[in-house]
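Data availability excerpt. The first of two example chains:
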Amino acid sequence: MNLIAAVDMNWAIGKQDELLFRIRTDLRRFKELTRDNIVICGRRTVQTFPGG
């Protein structure tokens, strides 16, 4: 099992339903690591996915 998270200095992972950081290479890497795998995430995150 792996955990993937981008955090700020206070360990925050988001604010007001948005990512703290929107780094294109990080999003690409997330897609590579999670494609065709089981992903556990919250309802709000699922709603941001295509078809979510």
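And the second chain:
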Amino acid sequence: MRLFEAGFVTGLSLIGGDLVNYLIIVFLGLVVLFCILLIWNKRKQKRQIAELVKESFGKPINLDEDKPDYRNERYMKHLSFYTRMQGSVLNDTTKGDIDFDKLFGKMNHTYSSVGEEYLYYVLSNPCTSYQQLDQREKIITYFQNNRALAIELQALFASIGKSKEVSMFQYLEYLQSVEGKILKKHIFSLVGIIITIVLSIIQPKLGLVPMFVVIVTNVLTYWSNRQFAHSIMGSIRRLESMIQVGVIVARYEVEELQSFSERLESSSKFKNVLKNSDIIFSEKTSLVGDADALLDYIRMLTHFDYVKLYQIMDKLQEGYNELYNIVETLGELESLIAIASFRESLEYYTVPILQQKEAINVDSALGEGKLTEHNLFMEELYHPLISNPVANTLHTKQGVLLTGSNASGKSTFLRTIAINAICAQTIHTCFAKRYESYFYMVHSAMSLNDSLENGDSYFIVEIETLRDILNDYGDTPILCFVDEILRGTNTIERIAASTETLRYMKNKGILCFAASHDIELTKLLIDEYDMYHFQEYIVDGQVDFDYILYPGPVTTRNAIRLLEVKGFDEIITNNAMDLIDYFDKYGEWPSASDFLT
């Protein structure tokens, strides 16, 4: 045993001095090399980002190729965190009806998480007064006219980057709730590795074994805390980038951006707190590569990133309210730049002319409610999510009832108006040559489904949705969209209930756009609703639609003809036509015995 101990000590003495010094020199050399690579790669990345932003500004987004994230349920949940926290004027039904997430994806010209989260919030909350929209319009127009500055700022926001895992505002909430106390074991880990390295240089025989023990211990404890620490390190990295952007914007002497500059003045307060966080908490990227892998080993050996993390958290919690305001301000600023870029990507658009008109309390035969005048004018209105859309023009001072066959364009036209009404009061942009309207609360009941979770049928879901619309009127008039009203019940009750529901909406001051196959409604509501329809054509056995809006109710029946085109047996179609002729002549359906004879 003594012989083994003597041999081990002799071995240490042989490899101790020169080898340890050599390893330390190699280690320091690698650190210097890492710093050089990191600086070079950061500059390269900055140039690449600037080029990408410049090329992308004002270019339309291909949702199938460029922005598939809107289809990711988890991503959209994180994206909507700030909106859910602050509240959304648009309800989930209306968002689903207009394909809200896809619409957002089309206009999401942002480069940072905070920018896209705030843009989602903007689109979810239509304004009901001039002031906020006027302020937005000034900034949006300024960036359209000053593209170079818009691109410069977008490049800064791109340096912040996006996280698909956690909301930026959720990060802030998490930071506030976590105890920012420096853990002694991480300080001991850092001090321990320093002492043993120094000891190994001075006394290799005494320092080498303790250094080995400390290395193993540090690596094990580092990995045991990695999941917790890394869950908030991402926020720190992005917060430092945001603070850097905030400091830069605060120095801008641009009149149009003065309010943003003033709100970002406190950014400098956090600059030193978060200094070098992007290096300390850096993620592995293809740009940094092996250099960052080296830094990862240094982190495991020293725990210096954990120590820094808890120090930062203590400081951030002290200025939480100011920090939150900075993040909100940057999000708002980038969302306006994104809207400017989105506008430039459109074939044509218009800034809406919006008038504010409060509903007036009235007493009518239908009971106390709201009655207001309406005036909605849309010239060459189109759907922004459709390739080569057909534009239509409409002017109404009351509700509109649309008729036409399936796939003729009724539902799409309802969605087109709804999208434009929402965008008019959010991003102050309409997909039309001209758009004039009052401010409205927008509701819809279009793409409804059975609620399996609650055990409700389609009809129950629909009438509850309509009830909520009727009960939601307030100082701001309601604009609502209903597709195939009360389709979940029998014909006689559907026509009767639909007539009275639409009439009730009219008398309550609700501006309603409804689509229906029931021709009877056009006769019953001729004095209360404007009538429009879509047509289809059958040419050489093929069904074709022009998607053009025509005045008046539909005057043709083509459903049975479509059955013929699709190859249904003549027995079916001929007998069906005979039934129609009988109904037209007598106003009722024949009994089975009468029809067979």
